[in-house]
Structure prediction request, 279 residues.
Amino acid sequence: MTTAGTILVIGATGTTGSRTVAQLSASGHRVKAASRRAVNVPGAEPVAFDWYQPATHPAALDEADRVYLIPPVGDADPAAVMLPFLRQARTAGVHRAVLLSSSAIPEGGPAVGTVHQALPDLFEQWAVLRPSWFMQNFTGTHAHAVSIRAEGAIWTAAGGGRVGFVDVEDIAAVAVRALTDEHAPNTDLVLTGPEALSYDDIATTVTQVTGRPVDHHRLSCEQMRDRLAAHVPPEFASMLAGMDSAIAEGAEDRITGTVQRLTGRPARRFRDLLEREMG
Prediction:
């Protein structure tokens, strides 16, 4: 790995950003931790950053030569704000960009897929991380975790479809390698855990580990869209519900060895995460 230069982490207080900052700092890298509120992040220089406030962008980019990109949350068209920033970043001296996308969104697909498509033309060194659904969705502040605690229920339109849920710590570990290895991946990386699980499997495992009954309630795509629309913009709710439908049809029923190939260790199992965080 190389330790020269400064790495800008956008979304530094978020799910993957905070862990990426922590792992980079622990490895001795100079990190600028960018968030809407310039909060103190141990081992990093805090800097204010808001995708929708261009006045915050120059200070964030100052001295940065690599950047980890978390798209604006809930925006169905993030390219509108991200692409101008990325052109500015290239002019400012950033030579490597690592973008967080999703296993469900291919290059040129909706939302961040447009940014994915543009990235290779903007930077000679790049990577797109395409993780499967986060294991932490069932333990943190995500709607699934909230409904597990409040109702003993998980609500999806995914039917019996299976997903290669991935530990966020593993995503951060891959992000660190993509940002700091001598040679950038220059490709997209689909990240999964070591097993594909249905939401029925998830409910059973949570029940076994915690001792509290949890059920998976199967909704139609329209019912799921309406449920989500109470919390996120309608277009984003429709997109998320559509992703559930794709899961039901088998789109996420896969596992990859990318975590082990990039980090040198196996991806973590869901049961191990639950025992660590909820057991």
